[in-house]
Amino acid sequence: MMEIGKIINSMEKEYFIHNNGDKYEGDWKNGQREGKGIMYYKNGDRYEGDYKNWAKEGKGIYYYNNGNRYDGDWKNNKFNGKGIFYFNNGDRYEGDFKNGQKEGQGIMYYSNDSREMGNYLNEQKIGKHVILHPRGNIETRNY
Hints:
Elements: E1 5-9, E2 14-18, E3 23-29, E4 32-40, E5 46-52, E6 55-63, E7 69-75, E8 78-86, E9 92-98, E10 101-109, E11 115-121, E12 124-132, E13 138-142
Antiparallel strand pairs: 1-2, 2-3, 3-4, 4-5, 5-6, 6-7, 7-8, 8-9, 9-10, 10-11, 11-12, 12-13
């Protein structure tokens, strides 16, 4: 992948300033982002983690400028594998992701102390879900 921008070398780090204002700081191999790095996006988002062939690949954390955060596995610039997505309202999802979406088994922890366990496909709830409420009540729903 060809990126247009400017490489800045210093004694300690190497930076790549993209023409759109994004900035990469980290490891390089054969002229590509490869290894550990941090990408600072012009909109205030930030990614810290592994890169391979310019893409987010491996383990990493993406911080959204609205307070949301994803911490987990990446493949080809998308959430892929196991991860935790933290919502800015205090909710969080822990489970499987595929192509940037909830897919597979997961648990949704809500800020009201309830939690919901079940399966997802393309970000949608599917099959039987079990909801545990804070006072011990158990509810099941089929999707």
